[in-house]
Amino acid sequence: MEPKSLIVVISYNSESFIEKCLNSVVSQDYHSWFLLVVDNNSTDLSLSRIREFRNSVPGISPKNFKLLKMNENYGFAGAIRKACWGYMQKRLKDYRYIIFLNPDLYLDTSALDQLIRALEGDRRIGVAGGLILDYEQDTIQHLGGLVSSNYLTTHIGSGKSYSQLKDKYKQEKENVLDTVRDVRYVTGAMLATRTELFTGLGGFDTGYRPAYFEELDYCLKCARLGYRVAVNPLAMARHAEAVTLKKYSSSFYHLYHKNRIRCAVLNAKLPYREFWAAERKWVREQSTADQKRALRSAYAKNFLLLLFNLAVRIKNHFILNRLKLK
Prior knowledge:
- This protein is α/β, with parallel strands linked by helices and about 325 residues long.
- It is about 40% helix and about 20% strand.
- Strand 8 and strand 9 form a beta hairpin.
- The model has no long low-confidence stretch (mean pLDDT about 90).
């Protein structure tokens, strides 16, 4: 019998993608899910597209689908908190796993089954992701993530050809694409986790508003509890990436660096010597001119919120210790 999962899609101005995303869920080999779509107060035709899907697709009913409309944009983690700790709170215990999907992502027909297989195959896996390709080309976006000492993030395999990756391992007589591998984090665009673990940790930290670094923060907490964070390359999807906020724009850098510094304050080894050594080196040798203003703003905002974030760090410490004792 298939374990049940809650699938959560947070939509904001995703009219061009949302129907394809939702239809890819319905087309999955894995069927034991409840699909919760949260619209973050979109200003385009997203709601109309979602309602059209709900009303026209066979098999969709109140038994396996719910649309929640927010009255403002709460960001990624904020919308999830309102959905999971609001509408779904009493029902979360009915689902073994929670799977988060971006609205600009569509799934290979076996993607959800492969995510579940990874989690079912090893109780030590607390978070599972997959292989994410470009929306239209066979170019890898994400096969897990790496984190530097100053919390700069890198997507494994980014920009590489999927075909070349398969050929490379075929030549080495090692089909790595059939092997679940450990990584530092997986992107929130497609992230599956254990419901008990997610609720125990209080979900994603809403302080990373409106987006970026909430999934890294969550994965780091899971790892500190002794869980594996892993990707199953057979769980494949395609992703438009940064539809709402153009990647490498000034707005992107502002949010990225603000939340990167916050993530370091909450997770880096005290007294932050390694972080600052890596940060100074990166700023001096690698940072670009268009990031300077964003960096100054990120440092200033996190300095003003330092005491608050240190209090959050202490709170997280006690939460992790309590979960470790179970």
